[in-house]
Amino acid sequence: MKPAPFAYHAPAGAAEAAALLADLGEDAKAIAGGQSLVPMLALRLAVPEHLVDLRRVDELRGIEERDGTVRIGAGTTQAAIGRSATVARGVPLLARATPLIGHFQIRNRGTLGGSLAHADAAAEYPAVALALDARIETLSPRGTGTIDAAAFFTGLWTTALEPDELLTGVAFPVWTGRRGFAVEEFARRGGDFALAGAAVAVELDGDDRVRRCAIGLFGLGSTPLRARAAEAAATGEVAADIDADDVGSAATASLESVPSDLHASAGHRTRVGAAVVARAWRRAIREAADA
Amino acid sequence: MPDAHAQQVAVEVTVNGTRRRAAVPPRLTLADYLRERCGLTGTHLGCEHGVCGACTVLIDGDAVRACLVLAVQADGAEVTTVEGIAAPDGELSPVQAAFRDHHGLQCGFCTPGFVVSVTAFLRDHPDPTDEEIRDGLSGNLCRCTGYQGILKAVRAAADGAAAAPKEHA
């Protein structure tokens, strides 16, 4: 057996799970699909004393559209999100990011909440949540809470979740109007974590000007990032007058902590980042213009 | 509070149609449970951290990596291993027959994972494009074949060609 020993708990409800997390504190880890945590257990990069398994907590699963948002339970698998017509219609950016996550065998187990709580800076869902200003819902014995995606990703594999807080769901705002969405990434092998990736959402007004846009970056820092300066520069401009390559350059101009490792140097990642932003921008604009 | 070193958790798993009950330590993976407790050593373990796909099994019909599932998480589930893919009389499934006919294997270590993955993939994509086949195979690693025989085998299985009887010299 490769993981170190841990005590196992399988609560039947979200409140019970949150109470357990509160009781056990920092020594406990919640497990959902386990597609990030079990490898870390096997390699003993994570050595929790307690595992709180959410598999029996059915109330964490489900997808519903209400009040201009699509609300997805944290325990919903990536495969279920990929199959959902509600997600495809309401949150196309999330739908398009999904096939890029690992492989289909991984997506059958991996969950939305797990992806966000694990908070890998090179993962797709955190960047999508950040780009769309998703609201992350939590439960603890202190009550329910929400955390804006912009405040959620605090560092490398680190989030604003307190040890007694269970991530219960994510509310994604539905963009309406002439909208376009694209996710582009580059990985050496399909299914690997991307060297760099971009999630772009745009909305055009009746005069083909950019009414609003969002650019999420992944693989380009210690957390997912928003390219807010590039967004501000493009907003209000006529879409046809914007050079996508300039958007890519602007989005990657002031990155501060681009990873540098055996897969790619920081400089290479930054250039790949500019290219994938430009690609995603072009596709998103084209879709919005045709809408 | 349970002692982490001594804790045993009761699980009931249906494996290839047979209901099994066991008490397992929570850190036991489903792959180790199948191999060591059930004697089903067709589920191969390559990397044991979710990269190679050799340990792929079906849980309630979905292809998953058995090294990334704890046995306790499979409680109540129906698991199908490569031993459960062929007919009870030993006749190869269309996917298995296509792998044999098209040299979809050499050393055979990765083959159980490929066979199980492809079985689920073709159920969900009965008429795949070549591109979809490549994407569907991307989660399994083979170090012998160069993949061309595997691609041909999946194409043939998808096209139903593997069902045709074939003379072997």
TrEMBL record, chain A:
Give the signal peptide range. Answer: none
Keyword Flavoprotein set for record: yes
**What is any Pfam family matched here?**
CO_deh_flav_C
| Keywords associated with the record | FAD, Flavoprotein, Oxidoreductase
- Ranges for domain FAD-binding PCMH-type come to 1-177
Asked if the Swiss-Prot or TrEMBL record annotates the protein with the keyword Transcription, the reply is no
User: What SUPFAM superfamilies does the database record attribute to this sequence?
Assistant: CO dehydrogenase flavoprotein C-terminal domain-like, FAD-binding/transporter-associated domain-like
**Protein name in the entry:** FAD binding domain-containing protein
TrEMBL record, chain B:
Give any Pfam family that matches: Fer2
What CDD domains has UniProt attached to this entry? fer2
Task: Enumerate the spans annotated as 2Fe-2S ferredoxin-type domain.
Answer: 9-85
Keywords linked to the UniProt accession? 2Fe-2S, Iron, Iron-sulfur, Metal-binding, Oxidoreductase
Task: Kindly give the PANTHER family that the UniProt entry links to this protein.
Answer: OXIDOREDUCTASE WITH IRON-SULFUR SUBUNIT
User: What is the official name of this protein in its record?
Assistant: (2Fe-2S)-binding protein
Lineage of the organism: Bacteria, Bacillati, Actinomycetota, Actinomycetes, Streptosporangiales
